[in-house]
Amino acid sequence: MAVPAGSGGAPRAGALPVVEARGVSKSFAGVRVLDSVDLDVLPGEIHGLLGENGSGKSTFIKVLAGFHDPDPGSRLRINGEDVALPLPPGAFRDHGMSFVHQDLGLITSLSVLENLRIGSFSRSRNWAIGWRRQRAEARRLFEEFDVDLDPAARVADLDGTQRALLAIVRAVHEMRTLRGSTRTGPGMLILDEPTVFLPETGRRQLFSLMREIAGGGSAVLFVSHDLDEVREITDRATIFRDGRLRATVETATVSDTELVQLIIGRELPDHSGEREEVVPTAATGAMAVEDLSDERVESVSFALGPGEVLGLTGLLGSGFERIPYLLFGAFPAASGTLRKGAEVLSLPGMDPVKAIAHRMALIPADRQRDGSVGSVSVRDNAMLQVIDRYSTWHGLSRARLARDCQDTLHRFDVRPPVPGLAYQSLSGGNQQKVLLAKWLAAEPEVLLLHEPTQGVDIGARAQIYDVVHEAARSGCAVLCASSDYEQLAAICDRVLIFDRGRVARELFGDEITKDRIAHECYTLADRAVPAGPVGPTEGEGEDR
Amino acid sequence: MTRTSNSEPATDVVVEPGRSSSATVARSLAQRFSIVIALVVVVVVFGALRPGTFLTTSTLQGILGSQAVLVVLTCALLIPLTAGDYDLSVAGVLMTSQMLIGVLNAQQGMNIWLVIVICLVTGAVIGLLNGAFVLLFGVDPFIVTLGTGTILSGAVLWLGDSTTISGISSGLTDWVIVNRFLGVPLAFWYGLVITAGLWYFLEYTAAGRRLLFVGRGRAVSRLSGLRVTRIRWGALVASATLAALAGILYAGTTGAADPVSGEAFLLPTFAAAFLGSTAILPGKFNSWGSFIAVYFLVAGTTGLQMLGAQSYVSDLFYGGALVVAVCASRYSRRKEVREAGSL
Fold this sequence. Notes:
Chain A is α/β, with parallel strands linked by helices. Chain A has 18 helices and 22 strands. Chain B contains 16 helices and four strands. Chain B is globular. Classes of the chains: A alpha/beta, B mainly alpha.
């Protein structure tokens, strides 16, 4: 059982914790994703929550929000009082808790004021809305937190920082208006990675807002991937790994190496100084990307050779996941060129039609929305890219189409191999195989993948790896953007690790292991204390 | 495009005969031919109740010939519906084209064949404009075509001076309703040919497949390299052109151009399109399903009127059929998704 290391040495020891979790567990279909978590959050502290994807930190937050029903034996005390579990949805409000999720929960077509008051509209029993009074109140609130927002502005016209600030001010405001009742106590603000897409100045503003809130006696629970941020802003931090709470530490006294070890669970050899500078391997490749930028990616360049499988990865918000879409023209780049053979294509002018004409293929992460039409047959989905080959003077040759589709389904081991079945009735793994079949049928020279095994069972995963390797063997250049380090280790010849929109590390051959990639990702995010390797992106935070 | 999902009916799960029991095969066949069965039932019931009037050759010939207009107009609507867009201006285009014939041919004495060409070109231009508003300004086609359709009915009243214009060249009426093949007016055969042609286009050509993908998944289509804008635009042009053809047939059927009656086509057209999508190829807008749906709806209303119902019964019947058809396609979609999930 996990013992919260170092709890008790908190800055405001002795104060009644806002939240005391004892033995909180949660299982899904017999799998424990949260295992006996004991966690205290004290009033007036900023408490960080760290861990990889799937470490259990989101599950814990969702238990607090009343979204998940924890396993029997879990206990939760709020402001010193035992509460019955599961918390009814929305009950967190009565306990003075307020959540800001990563999507912020704003309605962009409405005004700042309307968004600010949306919670009270839904509860209010008043017939009329006193707009003038509400506007004045909103102005006072923004002044108090030193946030420059116009209550009449449309949220759609705000930038990301302003939106995040609005969401947080709204949460604080809600916490306060509910404080009338005796049970709420000092209150707790829970921030689930609100900083991921913010520029540096936005982070500063957000942090000062968080400090003000904690200074007022409330607790702040801050979920983050970023060691740098957690170090800067939190008093204590709790690290989750594989569903367990590994430690609660005093942020000021813990070293980066210790934090990384707690997060990824292994002691890693020191790789310092191995690579001085990242010059992405320029080859006479299938293609070369130069100076690719958009709102979250900055001046990315790399080459990709025929037959190579290149992985792109990084933490959430590092921008790696945008690269396949930018290259394919799914959304526009701000600048950049793509050299393919003798041709130089401008990336801002790229679109899917052009990309396909240049023998590129994109398999997006969101199969349901971007990859396929679930209500149409497997055959029509699988054969869409090559359907013109079956056009004759008297229309489609449906017999030949059906035969070739059947062959393809057998070749890719799609189960059941029934061309007439609706696509959505296949399992995730088989859907993904059909998508690979669809795009490989067009014999692409460049295959762009994003999270290719998301929602795919283990057996199909291995088959998908085989398909990717087979494509590479036949000379296709493969680009795989993924946050699954194990998958990258399994299929890639080379991995580029992104940090804040730039390529920060390049790993080759034996270096590509799950642990090494994780280590690099987390140490890159930690830039406050530049111990160890000095990558090219270090010290460039000021210009964004 | 919030309305895309509304216009898209049930899922086309094609049950694999090898995997399913004979009961499921029977059930799926019953669903596919439900509309045919309904048509037969209606004919038999009204035939039994009013043998002297309903089941006469002249009644049948009348229905088959006059309703070809609705068949062609429904075919026109099916094209943008398949592409995921509503076109509410089809009735307006039909009226415009009919009134152009009245004014240019009956009043100005222009050659009927030249007028027909002008009508078709006008239809295509209206489609181009609809497409321009929808695609260049990114406006919901439901709203755009509601607007253009209303503008057109206003323009028709103005153009025809709110009166009925008779005296359309017999060249047109001969070739639409007077001349017969196998005892049935030529209009019926035109509708049949257009229905077959649309079926062929949607089912047997690559372009038809692309149209379907654009309707079912815009993002997927774009990322698959389909020229989504061009295809949607083309669908709106095709629908307006076909609607203009329906207007020509309407003028030929009645031998006159009146500025109001064409509006009554809008609802039956939608009813037939959605009702048709529950049969033959359940879950897909398809022209044979709609073809049979047209005649089912017309047989129903004609029979009721022969039983002595007032003329408003047709509104009740068409409106009811539309609501029932849309609900049925939603229901069968949910059911089939559920069944597919348990495979």
